[in-house]
Design brief:
Length: about 300
């Protein structure tokens, strides 16, 4: 009898790299990549969770032996292929990677290279302190290569469009999360590392400054124009400490900050199709006020 619940075999994965290009099953991959591209390459992930400390997202492809950790679903800087159980990962694939890796016409075995660096990507072995054998290979962005960023990338340009006027900054950020990072109808897609490289009025050091709100980043979103024509697209709001908007505003935050609390429901009037709201950054009264307005609301 045919077994409808027969375990599916892992997707065959062939990785081919040259100095100019990286492909997976013939599909070109560039960094930073994004969630949609990883799904195209590996299929839907088996599992996902949030890290305990940073609240970043962990994705795991059990059958294929692939996993990744990211702060922003639109800017994913690496993914890894696991080969050993000698690790301390919060979430790891159940199976080891069984595909093939060919770099510059050479089959790369896990123990025969010290690291490979090209302008477009880097390969390196992941080894825990105190261990001799690596547990994974990571493909990642080459952070030593500074990509040219157009001078007008983050310049807020004048517009003749009618804009939404927000009275509550926290509410505005929740809307930007939905329109910029979920629906991707607000451009440009903000990346704090790219913004820091683009900014010329002073040096922004994310490693040093990312534990508190960065004034220039906060001001950028306060000034960011949201066209009124996009308001009907907002049907839901979902706040989470791992939202892209908060991770870009506070790269080294722990998810428990109160900087982005919604203190007023007044801006809900702009969104006639808003039906459901899930909050974690809001004043105690906001849930009841939204429910009273007919918007189904709950705490995360």
């Amino acid at each position: 009898m045919f077994n409808l619940f027969k375990k599916q075999p892992p997707k065959s994965i062939t990785i081919i790299g040259t100095e100019e290009q990286l492909t997976i099953n013939g599909v070109p991959v560039t960094f930073p990549t994004n969630h949609a591209k990883l799904v195209e390459l590996f299929g839907e992930p088996s599992r996902s969770s949030k890290t305990k400390l940073t609240k970043s997202t962990l994705l795991c492809w059990d059958a294929e032996g692939v996993y990744c950790n990211y702060a922003s679903s639109s800017h994913i800087y690496s993914f890894s292929l696991i080969f050993s159980k000698k690790h301390q990962l919060e979430l790891s694939p159940k199976n080891n990677f069984s595909g093939s890796i060919n770099i510059n016409n050479k089959d790369i075995l896990f123990d025969d290279f010290d690291g490979i660096k090209f302008d477009n990507y880097v390969l390196r072995k992941l080894i825990y302190k105190g261990e001799e054998q690596p547990y994974a290979i990571a493909f990642m962005v080459n952070l030593d290569v500074k990509k040219e960023i157009a001078t007008d990338t983050y310049q807020l340009k004048p517009t003749n469009e009618e804009l939404l006027e927000f009275s509550d900054f926290g509410f505005k950020l929740a809307v930007i999360q939905e329109l910029m990072y979920i629906q991707e109808v607000l451009q440009p897609l903000f990346d704090v590392n790219e913004f820091a490289n683009w900014y010329t009025k002073r040096k922004i050091d994310i490693d040093q400054e990312g534990y508190e709100p960065i004034a220039e980043v906060t001001q950028y979103f306060k000034d960011f124009p949201v066209p009124k024509r996009l308001a009907p697209l907002v049907t839901k709001i979902y706040q989470d400490g791992g939202n892209d908007i908060y991770l870009n505003l506070l790269p080294h935050g722990n998810g428990s900050e109160e900087y982005w609390d919604i203190k007023s429901c007044a801006d809900a009037k702009h969104f006639p199709n808003l039906k459901k709201v899930t909050l974690c950054y809001a004043a105690d009264t906001i849930i009841d006020e939204l429910n009273h307005m007919g918007i189904e609301s709950e705490w995360l």
